[in-house]
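Problem: given the chain below (190 residues), write out its structure.
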Amino acid sequence: MEYEEPVSRTYQYRKVMKPMLERKRRARINRCLDELKDLMVTALQAEGENVAKLEKADILELTVRHLHTLRAARRLTLTPENSYADRFRDGFTQCAQEVSTFLSTPVAAAVHPAAGAQLMRHLGGCLRRLEGPAGAKHALATATASATKTTQASQTSVPQNVYTPPQSPVSVASSSGESSESSNAVWRPW
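Solution.
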């Protein structure tokens, strides 16, 4: 009489599952290779090459060669995600624009003009520190032009109903030489 050792359930489970998992993995690889083949055949036909039958190794080789060609032609660009600092700066800038927009509306007439000007100077200083030396010139250029308008409007108590959209970086750079640097300037994002 032979004595058989009991087989553990874990061992039985692995014995059954391993081949099944391997089949699923191979199926995934083959499905992706088929999709890659379709994409490569389309791309190569667009470039004038005729490809009839491709093996798996050919598909991978052609894909690598095609990606090298795109990278050499500078058509393959991978854009990195914005860093946390970039996202923070963008959010802070948007918030400063919202504050500036609010302060230029008739609803903000209850805000003391000096307090509004001080707030905008503070936000402008923070933005200059966030943007560095290049951004400081652009922020200062727009600050002096809009500070004059804001100060005059708040002193005459005429409500500003017109919203001025933000300037493009090109127009800000071109107007940076026109404005004089002033420590009392109120920074505006437009």
